[in-house]
Each structure stands twice: as structure tokens, then as C-alpha cells.
Amino acid sequence: MIRIEEIQFEKTFDNAAADYEKTRPAYPPAIFDDIFQYKPLEKDSSVLEIGMGTGIASKPFMDTGCRFVGLEPGKNLAELAKRKFRNYDNASVLTQRLQDYICPNESFDLIYAAAAFHWIPEEYGYPRVYDLLKDGGAFARFRYHAGSDEGRPALTDEIQALYREYMQREKPAAFTEADAEAIADIAAGYGFTDTRCRVYRTTKDFTADEYLALLHTYPDHMKLDEPQRNALFDGIYGAILRSGGMITVYYTTDLELARKRVH
Questions:
Q1: Cα–Cα distance between 112 and 248 in angstroms, integer?
Q2: Pairwise CA distance, residues 84 & 63, whole Å
Q3: Three-state secondary structure along the chain?
Q4: pLDDT per residue over 29-80, tens digit each?
Q5: How many beta carbons lie within 10 A of that of residue 91, not counting itself?
Q6: In Å, what is the CA distance from 85 to each residue of 22, 36, 69, 89, 98?
Q7: What pTM, to 2 d.p., does this model score?
Q8: Are 142 and 114 in contact (CB under 8 A)?
Q9: Per-residue pLDDT for 217 more than 80?
């Protein structure tokens, strides 16, 4: 087995568990409709979630009555998820990483990861998922990408200048359908078939305080030296206040689906 080294992002997310739960956006309901159309679930279906976090994407799967297992390496995140879903008899949350999870191969009808699979090296993640799936089982990976406030161009320009000064980069370019297609194609290289993808666009409004809480859940921001991070955060906070006290994040969420071949 490939050993995946302990990395700081797990601690960043776990240390900000409450902010993560409050500020991270909900996923568009259409994502779950598309997944369930691709792979219908029943009460005797088995589902595995990789990198569960606080369970932002978990409830629609649990509500099918399936046998649900959620893996979350962060202790604080996992404890929050356990409390949140304590009334679901069909679900269990394990404080584990995928590479530490012991389970027979061909155990699951559906495996999915929400804003988590990109942290796992593909040469380990895809083969492991393939082995854990039953023949004909499905893998779904989805993730949201935060875009700039399109309705407040002056605020966007000011924030971009802060990123150039303190992180030596622009905020990432908008995620596209072509990007989703490229991710979907990766699965085919590991034996999956029937690959598909889709992109969804949503928005979420934040006050200045809420947006700063969101930034505290971003590993690349939190690894900055404290003076540099404080200057960046203070600059963004002030820019939002001067722009009326609100910022709208334009999210793009991508979904990639793949199926294990029937042998």
C-alpha cells in the first residue's frame, strides 16, 4: 500500500471544525439527483463516504436508508458529524483515513468523496476505490470552487490586489466544463467505465465576519506566516466593510461519475 504522509491540511480543517460547519456551502440538490439516477440506492445498498468532514454532503445518502459508512480523519470534525447524525441507525462515522480503513474488497455499491478526493494521490485513491466497489458499483467525486464576486467588481479588484501582495498570486481562474471532463477522464485510466461529468453554478452571501470565518478553513491561507495572514485577512475584512458589508461567492461545483466494470 502507498503510504500517504500526514499533512497539515487535516489539522487545519479539524482546528476550524465549527467554522467549517457554519460557513462551507451546501451542495446543489441536483448533484444528488444526478448521482441517484446514475446509481439508485436502496435500504440494502452499502455506501462509503471518503473525507466526510462535518457531513455537509452526507444526509441525502443517509436518507435513502442505505448502510452508510463515513470516514473522517479529523477528530473534531468526526465528533461533530457523529452528534449531527446520532439519530441515524443506518450510519456510522469512523475517525479514519481511507488508507487506514480495513474492509474487504467489493463491499460497496457506491463510494463518494465531497471536496476530499483531490487530497489523495490518484495512483492510490482510484485503485483503492475500484477494489472496494462491487462489480457495477459507482464512484462519485464532487467539489466546489469559490469564484470572485461578479456583482461587486471594485471589491473583487481590491481583494485580488491583496492576494497578489500577500500570497503572490491571483485568485484561481473560474472552473470550467473542460476541467470537469479532464477529471472524469482520469477514472478511465484506472479501469472505470461509463464516465460522466456535470457542472453546477450557485452563489452564497457572506457578511465580513462570516467570510473571515470561511477563510480560516482554507489550508493555503492558514499556512501563511501569522503577520502575513493577519494583514491579508484584515485587508479583505476592511474591503468588504467598505463595499457595504457583504460579499457574494460565485461557486462552481463539479461532479464526476464512474462505474466499476462488471466482470
A1: 28
A2: 14
A3: CCCCCCCHHHHHHHHCHHHHHHHCCCCCHHHHHHHHHHCCCCCCCEEEEECCCCCCCCHHHHCCCCEEEEECCCHHHHHHHHHHCCCCCCEEEECCCHHHCCCCCCCEEEEEEECCHHHCCHHHHHHHHHHHEEEEEEEEEEEEEEECCCCCHHHHHHHHHHHHHHCCCCCCCCCCHHHHHHHHHHHHCCCEEEEEEEEEEEEEEEEHHHHHHHHCCCHHHHCCCHHHHHHHHHHHHHHHHHCCCEEEEEEEEEEEEEEECCC
A4: 999 999 999 999 999 999 999 999 999 999 999 999 999 999 999 999 999 9
A5: 22
A6: 16, 21, 12, 9, 21
A7: 0.90
A8: yes
A9: yes
Min mean pLDDT across 7-11, 170-174, 208-212 is at: 7-11
Q: Residue 14 pLDDT > 60, yes or no?
A: no
37's CB contacts (< 8 A; 6+ apart) are: none
Is the separation of the CB atoms in 115 and 253 below 8 Å?
A: no
What is the residue type of 15? N
Distance CA 72, CA 56 (A): 12
